[in-house]
Amino acid sequence: MRAAILRDYNAPLSIEDVPDPACPPDGVVLRTIACGVCRSDWHGWVGEHNRVKPGQIGGHEYCGEVIEAGPDAQFAVGDTLVAPFILACGTCPQCRSGHQNTCLDQRLPGFIEPGAFAEYVAVPRDHNLARLPETLSATVAAGLGCRVTTSWHALTGRAALQGGEWLAVHGTGGIGLSAALLGRALGAHVVVVDVVQEKLDHALSLGIDAAVLADDDTAARIREITGGGAHVSVEALGIPVTVNASLRCLRPLGRHVQVGLPTGHTAQMEVDMAAVYQGNLALYGTRGMPSWRYPSLLDMITSGKVDMSPLIAREVALSDTSAELAAFNGPTPPGVAVITDFGR
């Protein structure tokens, strides 16, 4: 099969022919229909994700058709499936309590084992997967496994966002725009922040209530727009300036959700704990989504309560993956890229 392989950090991926993956006994092999290119892939590509090493096939946001099923698999050849990027064991204390995204024995295609920047991907533990609804395109579904699932769990499983509350979203890339759209669908008022005016204009065109071009007064401007501060603030980049703007924009008893990945040089940062103390704020970390929450998210999308298609800006070929990763080195245009052509 053709695959895009990391050979050197910060260098173009190598497009190579490699052996097809073996089918796990408790899982499936998917023919990859679509795979998103995510900022988390970029963290690995530049060498700042401690689990991603040279030789890795990246890609953790995928949708595919089952071409082979193991003897203990729950799905069958011909099924079209989407997967969370965390494949939980299902038996540890975390899994048994319903928190599969904090599983003590995680499998992580695209980070530790071969991912979906390839024609085929092996997926163990297929109890984590979900069937693709007939009304949802595989291209849109490819973004569900990381950006959308993470945003959904951040808003509903962690911050408990309520209709009528103000939600601030710092960064309108894939996760940020997902959070903004989902927050609006949940009945919240939403203000987005970015350094790219084009991305703010794009968000406003999708019905987002307000937009702030980031500067030194970002938090004050949000507090003015929201009449005292946001109830919930999502940080979607993982860098100090937006983390602190997120904390400072909240009203008393507000909830900050750390969605952006702090890794490499941002793994440790200075945080305005005075804002946390003075505001009686709650801080939530979040990563991924328990697989049992797929139905609530898919129902929201298939019922027409939220349209996630504006998230997809362009469909690209496997050979374009390196250019999409390199684009994360600077401010990016609106929307995300999804690989849909694995033949070139």
From TrEMBL:
Top-level lineage group: Bacteria
Cofactor: Zn(2+)
Record has Ribosomal protein as a keyword: no
Classification via Pfam families: ADH_N (PF08240), ADH_zinc_N (PF00107)
EC numbers: 1.1.1.1
GO function term, MF aspect, one: zinc ion binding
UniProt keyword annotations, A-Z: Metal-binding, Oxidoreductase, Zinc
Domain Enoyl reductase (ER) stretches: 10-339
Similarity comment text for this entry: Belongs to the zinc-containing alcohol dehydrogenase family.
Protein name from the UniProt record: Alcohol dehydrogenase
